[in-house]
Amino acid sequence: MSFASEAIVLRQPGGPEALVLESVTVPAPGPGQILVRQSAASVNFHDIYVRSGAYQTLPLPGIPGLEAVGRVEAVGEGVDDFAPGDRIAYIDTRYGGYARLRVLDATLAVPLPEGIDDGVATAWYLKGLTAQALVDDVEPVHAGSVVLAQAAGGGVGQLVARLSKLRGATVIGTAGSPEKAAIARAAGCDHVIAYREEDVAARVMDLTGGRGVDVSFDAVGKDTFEGSLASLAMKGHLVHYGQASGPIPPFDLSRLGPKSAKVSRPFLWPYIRPREKLLSASASLFAAMAAGDLPLTLGGRFPLADAAGAHAALEARAAGPFVLDC
Question: Is Oxidoreductase tagged as a keyword (predicted)?
């Protein structure tokens, strides 16, 4: 048995116009799989890198998209955790999210409670798990912690700021524009530094009485690394979790010695394995979403057929996040 559906198919790298809606055939779910009728798929910068060819991680022709939400249509042999009608969310590093109907390994799916908007859930799921892992596992934040959240007006950055604040920390955020600064303040930052205009480390030391921060969460990379490093307190931790401005140049580890500081480069996946950890982390995130504890908005919704428009908006740095309505 198979099912007729539609999906965005990328046949060769290119601009947004390379994303074309096509008719596809979806097989019945096999052992350990579920058939999902999707309602919304997230649009991430990762998807842009895949589409452009910067990341050659999607075999072509292929269907892009890392994360989506929907409802289970059917289950394959051996699947006991889900039943038709169940609402689920998932992240799949093998892609396939830009589709109306798809088959998914059941171990990737997590229950999604009712009451959370489909678009909000999928737009913030990966970002939320990342922020949660950063402040709870990579460098546990607690009452009394002093945190520097670089790019606190960005997607993950604002969640890092809010989650740190919820855990009792003093949060210093940085932002590259007045608009992003407003977002950072709304996310709970106690202080916001305009990192393109001010010396971040000098301002941090002024705000902390020369102490510095316990941890700097930095996804900007090349442009902010030195400021993050100089902002650390004794035994501080620079968590470098992205490089939006480019990779960090070669770095002499002996520079960490005077403060007994540390630098780490975490990725999400080890922090949401095994499956029990994925389930507990997802449940915690969805509970925070449902309670209204997180600053979750959408920059725009696009029909699946206009995936190109969503990519163009994201590349133009329009205020996101963006989702595709499947």
Answer: yes
Q: What is the CATH number of domain 127-266?
A: 3.40.50.720
249 φψ region: left (φ > 0), alpha (ψ -120 to 50), beta (else): beta
Query: So what's the pLDDT on residue 97?
Result: 98
**Torsion, CA 170, CA 176, CA 182, CA 187, rounded to 10:** -40
The pLDDT value given to residue 319: 72
Residue range(s) in the chain whose domain bears CATH number 3.40.50.720: 127-266
Identify the helix (H) or strand (E) that includes residue 164.
helix 155-166
Q: How many CA atoms lie within 13 A of 177 on its CB side?
A: 8
Full-model pTM: 0.92
Which helix or strand (DSSP H or E) is residue 228 part of?
Answer: helix 225-230
pLDDT for the residue 242: 86
Token output for 257: 């010695």
* Cβ contact 16:309 at 8 Å: yes
Output the six-digit token pair for 170.
Answer: 């003093």
- At the top level of CATH, the class of 2-112+296-325 is alpha beta
For the segment 114-158, what is each residue's pLDDT rounded down to a tens digit?
Answer: 999 999 999 999 999 999 999 999 999 999 999 999 999 988 999
